[in-house]
Design brief:
Structural class: alpha+beta
Oligomer: single chain
Number of domains: 2
Number of helices: 7
Radius of gyration: 28 Å
Strand order of the largest sheet: 6-5-4-7-8
Largest sheet: 5 strands, antiparallel
Bound molecules: zinc ion
Shape: elongated
Order of helices and strands: HHEEEEEEEEEHHHHHEEEE
Helix content: 10-25%
């Protein structure tokens, strides 16, 4: 038996090479019609077996069950369907159509009996689930392949619940940014009933320590609601506590970023604590705080 010590490995070296492998294939009579309909009419065609009534997409020449000849038994399918299975591709290979990570899903179109593989975009891998309703988004430029469907995206009107307690991890963060205008301040005065001239009257405000009008403190503070309620944890979240310490004013025209980061998971109650920060366009911290929330329950 030969043994090697570390020095032997050090002397070995790696040669990097490249193989180009251009190829072409005949799509066949059935496959060609499928691809041409996709390219020219943005229609997804399948074939139906008259014996077992199964609809195959992509189409094929023969029914796998009845051996019936399916050529010319075309049916037009919906561009909408449902995800029956999926995987998240995380490794990168040069042949991939898009950069990982991406979701590769089996999609069964409405009216079809067989699912086929395609890419799903517009949904985070951690939020992906079987049963998601999706719709084809056709490519602007044809490649004469199945990629004439660029991808599938969730159909609109589906409200995705936010991260559940188990999905949330310490360190996850999200933010929302908005420019605070005079209109915002006026509307907020109406909402809150706080018509304090330091927010509304420039001549009065000139005499205050700020020297000009500033926004109500609760206005930039309220931006955190969109983070907690719509992003992290997201839809379905119930806020129990929001503590804020104001560190600086928000002037008209300031662009405020409200951000939240998960800092604690309360195992017993299954509640989550988040650290809150508000900064302006200069990166200056104008507020800090924390929130206690009940994350949404997982969809069951
Ligand atoms: Zn059949």
């Amino acid at each position: 038996m030969t043994t090697y010590d570390k020095a032997d490995y050090k002397e070995s070296f790696v040669v990097k090479g490249k193989l180009a492998l251009p190829y072409q294939y005949f799509a066949g009579r059935t496959g060609s019609k499928f691809l041409i309909a996709l390219r020219d009419k943005k229609k997804i065609l399948g074939v139906r077996c008259n014996t077992c009534k199964k609809v195959f997409v992509p189409p094929r020449q023969t029914c796998e069950k009845c051996f019936e000849d399916l050529s010319e038994k075309w049916v037009e399918l919906s561009d909408k369907g449902v995800v029956t299975n999926f995987t998240v591709v995380r490794y990168a290979e040069p042949h991939q159509p898009i950069k990982p990570p991406y979701i590769l899903a089996m999609i069964k179109l409405d009216g079809a009996d067989t699912p086929f593989a395609h890419i799903v975009r517009g949904v985070a891998p951690s939020k992906m689930k079987e049963g998601l309703k999706v719709q084809a988004q056709f490519a602007k430029k044809t490649t004469n392949t199945i990629m004439d469907i660029e991808c599938f995206r969730p159909t609109s009107g589906q409200f995705e619940l936010g991260y559940s307690y188990d999905e949330l991890e310490i360190g996850m963060s999200a933010s929302f940014t908005k420019t605070i205008t005079e209109t915002d301040v006026y509307l907020f005065a109406g909402i809150s009933g706080d018509f304090n001239p330091m927010h509304l009257n420039e001549e009065f405000a000139k005499k205050t320590p700020f020297g000009t009008r500033i926004a109500h403190g609760a206005l930039p503070q309220s931006l955190i609601a969109s983070v907690l309620g719509m992003k992290l944890p997201g839809l379905g979240t119930v806020a129990l506590e929001i503590n804020t310490r104001f560190l600086g004013p928000t002037y008209f025209g300031d662009t405020v970023t409200a951000s939240a980061e998960v800092i604690e998971k309360l195992e017993k109650k299954r509640w989550v604590r988040l650290e809150l920060r508000w900064t302006n366009q200069h990166g200056k911290l104008i507020g800090i705080g924390d929130a206690l929330v009940i994350p949404p329950a997982p969809a069951g």
